Amino acid sequence: MTTENLSAILHTVNDLRLENRPIPQPKENEVLLRMDKVGICGSDVHYWVNGRIGDFVVTKPMVLGHEAAGVVQEVGKGVTHLKAGDRVAIEPGVPCRTCDYCKGGRYNLCLEMAFCATPPFDGNLARFYTHAADFCYKLPDHMTMEEGALLEPLSVAVHACRRAGVTIGQKILICGAGPIGLVCLLTAKAMGASTVIITDISESRLEVAKTLGADHTLLVSQNDAETLAQQVAEKLGSLSDVTIECSGAESSIRLAIFGTRSGGVVVLVGLGQAEIKVPIVNAAVREVDIRGIFRYANCYPTALQLVATGLVNVKPLITHRFTLEETVKAFETARAAAAGTIKVMISCFD
Ligand code: NAD
Ligand code: ZN
User: How far, in Å, is the centroid of ligand 1 from the Cα of 71?
Assistant: First the structure.
């Protein structure tokens, strides 16, 4: 076995290098993983381009990557449910397990969360990586490693749809047809939504959404949010029961509120500017609930089942593939987000 651990390390803004680091040793309740597939997320690109997301600042070199699947190479002494050779999806955030949030099951809100590629924690875009064994989920033989890696964004969608209370027969508005909007589309459909309309400013992303099962699309133009909401109502036959906002754009969050029926729910997945202007009285007097989401908790097993049973097909999301050595090229492709680019996937071993 090689002793080298080629890793994609972000040193500072626009300075992403491939360097060898030592292969880590698994602690008692950890596994050593031979990394297989790692998807590039918007946040990885954001750290590369800006060096920070909000209060999370890259102050020392950090390995990127958190949408990942790998093969167990070695298990720590305390690990009983996994063995060498098991193929696993890696839930990238490990919480403290003892605080009130963790005990209450909302571990995504844990203040001690160690999340891959969120400073100061290293990610897993590397050849070898150790992780808490109970945050690794064994994949059935018929699932690919790429599908395992895509359980990460899919878990965001599962959490968003759960927080929204998506259920059978509902009309859903999804704002933004990037990777996250698209996995929300797939998940809402799997959870029984009868009709989904999805918006974007990019025609090509809406084309992809149609092929993934969107019933209606709305190319968002210069129109104001209230006019757009009328267009949503015309297409759906009424305003939406639930709206899942996945762009973070102010105009889109305004549409999310105006486009939701009275008594409905808006879930804010997209994270844009910290403070924006929204029609808050309109939401208040129509009892439209506005709920945020932060990543996910207890969603990986569900995401895995959705894919394993064929309820959701995430494979069409992958549009580009690169090797670990080609990481910078892969990031340039993800950053350009040219027409037709959805998910860029990296193979850690050729
Ligand atoms: P993305 O940038 O690839 O997709 C955003 C999409 O929104 C793009 O297709 C873009 O064309 C579209 N868009 C931009 N302005 C719009 C507008 N006014 N109306 C409609 N669509 C518009 O990003 P992504 O990877 O799909 O992630 C989406 C958002 O979700 C990001 O803001 C990201 O930070 C956020 N996110 C949040 C969480 C969380 O835990 N809350 C987790 C993952 C991602
Ligand atoms: Zn905790």
Answer: 30
pLDDT value of residue 258: 98
Q: Where are the domains of the chain?
A: 4-150+314-347, 155-292
176: left (phi over 0), alpha (psi -120 to 50) or beta: left
Which of the four CATH numbers 3.90.180.10, 3.60.15.10, 3.30.390.50, 3.40.190.170 does domain 4-150+314-347 have?
Answer: 3.90.180.10
**pLDDT for 120-143, tens place per residue?**
999 999 999 999 999 999 999 999
CATH architecture of 155-292: 3-Layer(aba) Sandwich (3.40)
Domain 155-292 in the same topology as domain 4-150+314-347: no
Query: Read out DSSP for 183-202?
Result: HHHHHHHHTT-SEEEEEES-
CA distances 122 to 97, 115, 117, 161, 301, Å, are 20, 8, 5, 29, 24
Give the position, in ligand 1's atom list, of the atom nearest the Cα of 296. 40
**Ligand 1 surroundings by CB, under 6 angstroms:** 42, 156, 175-181, 199-202, 205, 220, 246-249, 251-252, 269-272, 293-295
**Minimum CA distance residue for ligand 1 atom 29:** 270
pLDDT band at residue 114, thresholds of 50, 70 and 90? Answer: very high
Model confidence at 236, pLDDT cuts 50, 70, 90, reads: very high
Question: What's the ipTM?
Answer: 0.99
**Nearest atom, ligand 1, residue 46 CA:** 34
How far does the centroid of ligand 1 lie from the alpha carbon of residue 134, in Å? 30
Choosing from 162, 180, 343 the residue with most ligand 1 atoms within 8 A of its CB, the one to mutate for a pocket test is: 180
- Alpha carbon distance 63, 121 (integer Å): 8
3-52 pLDDT per residue, tens: 799 999 999 999 999 999 999 999 999 999 999 999 999 999 999 999 99
Q: Which residue type does 54 have? A: G
